[in-house]
Design brief:
With 62 residues, the chain is mostly helical. The protein has helices at residues 4-44, 55-61. It is rod-shaped, with a radius of gyration of 21 Å. The protein starts with a helix and ends with a helix.
């Protein structure tokens, strides 16, 4: 059984750890979306809008 002091320390550290984990995932997903956008534009930027595949279809099949 952990002592009371250990539990209090964990309670102080947990929000910081969660904040860091959520921050890293947020940065990862926003970076992935931005790089997807660039690749999509590079592949299909020269085509008129109606000839491009939808982004969701393109993501599933790339």
């Amino acid at each position: 059984m952990p002592s009371l002091n250990q539990l209090l320390a964990l309670k102080e550290i947990l929000p910081i750890v969660l904040f860091i984990v959520v921050g890293i995932t947020g940065v990862y997903f926003s970076f992935r979306t931005i790089s997807d956008e660039f690749r999509y534009q590079k592949q299909f930027g020269h085509l008129p809008e109606f000839m491009r595949p939808t982004k969701s279809y393109w993501r599933r099949h790339m």
